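One record is given unchanged without comment:
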Amino acid sequence: MDHFLYRNGILHAEDVAIPEIAAQVGTPFYVYSAATLTRHYRLFTEALSPMPHLVCFAIKSLSNIAVLKLLGDLGAGMDVVSGGEYLRAKAAGVPGDRIVFSGVGKTRDEMRLALEGGIRQFNLESEPEMRALSEVATALGVVAPVTVRVNPDVDAKTHAKIATGKSENKFGIPIARAREVYAEIARLPGLRVVGIDVHIGSQLTELAPFEAAFAKVRELTLALRGDGHDIRRLDLGGGLGIPYTRSNEAPPLPTDYGAMIKRTLGDLGCEIEIEPGRLISGNSGVLVAGVIYVKNGEGRDFLILDAAMNDLVRPSMYDAHHDIVPVAEAAPGSPTQAFDVVGPVCETGDTFAKARDLPLVAAGDLVAFRSAGAYGAVMASEYNSRPLVPEVLVRGDQFAVIRARPSFDEMLKRDSIPEWL
């Protein structure tokens, strides 16, 4: 469910008409619904209650500080994968004891940053990383709380570029080697084991892969406790998918996910951490674009928008589908036409959809890409020297620009010409 609905024939974000935002901000822009973000976060907390738990929002899906503050004020933790994301979480007012640091390539500077600023735990992914963290923590005179991300070799049945739990993926330590790795951690100064971490991929649309991975985590928990390790937390990652189309098929609900966790792991007495990103942020946002031209080609027609692959790269990178709808609702029974929906970037890959059946629109009209809140603005760039797409947050009948579109002057001034040219 989201809060982007037609009212009197015009698409609204909560109680704000999309054209009202476009008139002030210009297109393209992202707009997020505070009500949707709040609702989706609470779905997870309710699904895991009464188990002890922490829902850590995966910042990589949507990293605007205003969004992080909204979720942090609700009690969310944050899952970060870089020093920059850590600083964003802190800037949003999230305390260190609610921040989990994930990722395969943490640098010593990032480790030091988190240890000095406060951290709930590091999710370690390799032996070299754990030895480096031990050295950094020891030099600072502190002890770093850690889990090990285990790779359970489970097929998440998702897109190959977002699968993370198979043996050929770069993530984690093979689960078969976990006991020897934990034994080494116990011998290292500066590290303290607090739990186990697992994450098998993104946009999963069924629960079976999760359950297969969690069953292996259960066995490992019992084995590690038998070895004398204090396994008190299970970080289960994220990955639950969202419906990108308005078809009758839908991924499992957080309630089903929570019930499965309770069934498989609930008797272990562990605090459960999860790291959803897409399911909280995905349907909370839309990308709004303007139609520049309707172009009739040979054998196909093109809808040329002022949004491009630099604003929303998912279709080019993942062949991802986003529903595209006119902001002015088409009347029932109105004619439709098949369009290739494209942007102005000088790449054939700058294509959002091919032969997409859409209501007739004209130059100057607005369209919206649904379910664009996750991995949209965070992956945007200034390719073709197009200023970075702005972001807007709506709450009720209010809206605010939470990242402004830079001017051309601001964009150009970030470059510098050396004196010797």
